[in-house]
Amino acid sequence: MKTLISNKIKTAFTILAMVGITSSCDVVDLQPANIIPDAEAFADANRVNAAVLGIYESAQRGFYLGAVQRGYPFGAASVQQGDMRGEDMYNDQLFYEITYINGQNPQTANNNGQWISLYRMINRANIVIENLPIAQSNGAITTEVMNQFMGEALYLRALAHHELVIYFARPYSDNPSSLGIPYRTFAINDVSKVGPGEAVGRGTVQQVYTQLLADLDEAERLLNTSTNPFRAQKGAAIGLKARVKLHMEDWDGVLAEYEKLKGIYAVTANPLAPFRGGTSTDNIFSFENTAISNPGVNGALANMYGNPNLGSRGLVKISPLIWRAEFWHPEDLRRSLRGASDGFVSQGPLGIFTNKYTDNVTFSDKSIVMRFSEVVLAAAEANARLNNLETSLNLLNSVRNRALPATVAPYTSADFANADELITAIINETRIEFLAEGRRFPNIHRLSGEGRMPGIPAKATSRSITGIAFYTGTGTIPTDHSLAYTSNLFIWPLPLEEILTNASAPLEQNPGY
Question: Which CATH architecture has domain 1-307+317-513?
Answer without folding.
Answer: Alpha Horseshoe (1.25)
